[in-house]
């Protein structure tokens, strides 16, 4: 019989929170990452096979299993553009005031 883990056990093994495991599972269902899907047991409880988690860890190139999320991919490019635009606006306001900071 194969050993199964609860979400807390998986989270502890991967050194992340249980909510992160839930998020990775949801993204995996949508095809955004390769995190193993849980098996359902009586009562709607979710369990992960230890062999699936170990196989997943071996497939990761980094020491800590952190699959990239869609949100992180989108955020990195979008956040850079937003930071750049905010910096440009602040610089423009600074120049319009003659290079002086506003007094409070």
Distance between the termini: 70 Å
What's the shape?
Answer: rod-shaped
> Order of strands across the widest beta sheet?
1-3-2
Q: For the residues shown, what is the average pLDDT?
A: 77
Oligomerization? single chain
Unreliable stretches (pLDDT < 50, length at least 5) are: none
Number of helices: 4
How many strand elements? 3
Total count of domains? 2
How big is the Rg?
22 Å
Order of helices and strands: EHHEEHH
Label the CATH architecture of the largest domain: Orthogonal Bundle
- Strand content is 5-15%
Key phrases:
104 residues; mainly alpha; Multidrug-efflux Transporter Regulator, Chain: A, Domain 2; 2 domains; three-stranded antiparallel sheet; 4 helices; 10% strand; rod-shaped
Question: What does this protein structure show overall?
Answer:
By secondary structure, the protein is mainly alpha-helical. The chain has two domains: 1-66, Multidrug-efflux Transporter Regulator, Chain: A, Domain 2 (Orthogonal Bundle), CATH 1.10.1660.10; 68-97. It contains four helices and three strands. The protein has a three-stranded antiparallel beta sheet with strand order 1-3-2. Helix 1 (7-14) crosses helix 2. The longest helix is centred in the last third of the chain and has 27 residues, at 70-96.
Write the layout of secondary structure elements.
Elements: E1 4-5, H1 7-14, H2 18-29, E2 39-41, E3 45-49, H3 50-59, H4 70-96
Antiparallel strand pairs: 1-3, 2-3
């Amino acid at each position: 019989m194969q050993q199964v883990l609860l979400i807390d056990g998986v989270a502890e093994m991967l050194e992340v929170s249980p909510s992160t495991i839930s998020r990775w599972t949801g993204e995996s269902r949508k095809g955004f990452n390769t995190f193993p899907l849980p098996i359902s047991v009586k009562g709607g409880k979710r369990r992960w096979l230890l062999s699936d988690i170990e196989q997943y860890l071996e497939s990761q190139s980094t020491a800590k299993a952190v699959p990239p999320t869609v949100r992180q991919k989108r955020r990195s490019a979008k956040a850079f553009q937003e930071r750049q635009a905010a910096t440009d606006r602040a610089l423009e306001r600074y120049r319009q005031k003659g290079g002086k900071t506003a007094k409070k």
